[in-house]
């Protein structure tokens, strides 16, 4: 089946999968957003326990999606992995540390004898929520703004700035996406609290804070998108593979791939609907689904315009011809074929996640559940 | 060529990876084995409805959770470090190595993370049977994760199923099944996972013995011991069998590692196995053709090494010097020759790249070499050796001796692992015998031995990985890529900073983990709530 596809078709298929994983990752960052709001929304110890626990039952999905996103990127576009990870060392290391401290924070936070006290572990969660979202947003923005690296004829890469990735966080366009992701994650976190916790005060406070986070999100998101649509993009000549700058490239990609544009618009409307419903409707608990679905579609379409339609998805501003495209950075035809068969498992993975999510979230968390002796509580 | 390598960058990068891998491996084996032990216990609970079994299950599950978190935290570091610190490696082998990593994510990690949530938070929310299924699927997920990363590791030890593509300057997969089912991958997976089962069994037996010593939760402790000791004994038998298979595989695919494990400088037929050995003066530094190993103590089993390696007592086991200097009688090509051939392969690739777009005929001629099976088998096979080339024959010989792994570390790690493995199997047998005779509770010596065997299990487990990873040096990909050429070109100071950041983080995490774990153990199963 997959073996008969052309190498380019397989490269496109894998770009779609990687984009989808990236999109799901941003949605699942509601966990990170929620972690930055524990003290804003939780005013009592019990409220904070409920917040931590509702996020604590989902953090592993986000974490696993991040790991799989990385693994899938490594497997399908190894030149990106070697160039970006090996070059933008500090950005990836900071993201890494932010996730390492998250992984133990939930389990250790409420255990007796945990040495550093619950506040330390809650601070770990805060750091993860802050750095994880802003830096991943910033790193992804370099797909559009470029980085300073070269790749030699042996496909060995070298970063040309000694700041090794930290420079990405100083670029305002990158930062606008980083901050948009940060506030989006907070909006999603608030909507998730409203959905999964049965507590009047938590609900009311979360609702109130939606507007405080929704407005900055819109400001940063619109800044990023408008800037993206008017800036020069990194186009690839499909015949010579030469990379050159083309005015309005990313906007043109949207127009030339109308389905992607429609997905993008539906996504944005979804996020606005979820946000609006959360703010305006009285007992709305379902806003997370519209906003979450919208997030997936928006991020998915943005990643598609980064890699499709003869575009370099990881451009080099230092040497345009070192830029990475889905064609020059990918794995071989054989490997992409073999992995494509494995990708057929993805619908099954979604199916059991959905089933388990439903079984576990059937009844929202409440105070009684947190006092239960029979359950594992963070 | 060696003078172009920044050795301090290589060494710091290695130190960071070794630190992370060893720290990660403190937690993984317990996860692998304890997940099954919990599944056995919960199965008995569901079958019998006996609440004591539920209490037992939940106690071990709590310890599993504490251990699991830190395993996850350290696992992601390894994935990142393949790219951040070993970027040349990630490109050179990404076409093969990346695939198992992605499959691991899709197949195993999601299964593990989805069902672990049911395991911990699903009591009373889902049916008993669904909960039990989730526990089993968590165990399956954890072990599947181990499968894929071990397939990737095995490929690095014994690269098969691929072909070098000069256009992209990397190895590309040609046969997935050759990679997945290579004998190295199969034995590595079985040996590593069963070592995890043995460690977890010793952990459960040791802690339960402590309860028996303290005369607390006696029924809980005895039941836990029975389950863990049976699982441990069965796993020990498998561990020895797969260890035997693994040693034979190493003798065939990585003879230098095999020689280092036994500190065998001169090859011999009817080679004896050193059961116990203590080194005297270290060999000359740098190693040369006159080097040898002095022993203070050496107890040997005659003919055993030849038999272990090739199932024949008369078989010739090549020593370090046979491999470096060659041995015509036994048809062993010297490292010196391999270096020359590897160098030629590297020069061919370089010329190929230079001819591209300049001299089409030359370009096609050189390209054809990489498709020529004979040339690949006789020259490209030794590609990585080319990095040790020197036109001066004397220097070339000295360089050839640099392709020898650290001997004493490989030797001691191997022997510690084997001796402790024997101790573990014996301990399980004694414990089960005493359980059968209803005399375990009164035998303090065995109970204390079981308790103090917990740290030994960790030592054996770490020693196993030291044999595997130190023993294959200087290769990151056997014969194809030396570790020194695999690193990312970053400042050594950056790696030094992250090395120390990791060290501080790991020490802090280890202290917290141990203190939390000890407290939970002391609380015992009765106070097994979240307090």
From TrEMBL, chain A:
It is found in: Cell membrane. Keywords: Cell membrane, Electron transport, Heme, Iron, Membrane, Metal-binding, Transmembrane, Transmembrane helix, Transport. Its main location: membrane. InterPro entries: Cyt-d_oxidase_su2 (IPR003317). Pfam families: Cyt_bd_oxida_II. The chain crosses the membrane at residues 12-40, 61-81, 87-105, 125-149, 169-189, 210-230, 259-280, 287-308, 338-357. It is a multi-pass membrane protein. Belongs to the cytochrome ubiquinol oxidase subunit 2 family. PANTHER family: CYTOCHROME BD-I UBIQUINOL OXIDASE SUBUNIT 2, CYTOCHROME BD2 SUBUNIT II. This is Cytochrome d ubiquinol oxidase subunit II. It comes from Carboxylicivirga mesophila.
UniProtKB/TrEMBL annotation, chain B:
GO terms for molecular function: oxidoreductase activity. The chain crosses the membrane at residues 22-47, 59-78, 98-122, 134-156, 196-213, 225-243, 412-436, 445-468, 494-512. It is a multi-pass membrane protein. The keyword Acyltransferase does not apply. InterPro entries: Cyt-d_ubiquinol_oxidase_su_1 (IPR002585). Keywords: Cell inner membrane, Cell membrane, Electron transport, Heme, Iron, Membrane, Metal-binding, Oxidoreductase, Transmembrane, Transmembrane helix, Transport. The keyword Transmembrane helix applies. Its EC number is 1.10.3.-. It is found in: Cell inner membrane. Belongs to the cytochrome ubiquinol oxidase subunit 1 family. This is Cytochrome ubiquinol oxidase subunit I. It comes from Carboxylicivirga mesophila.
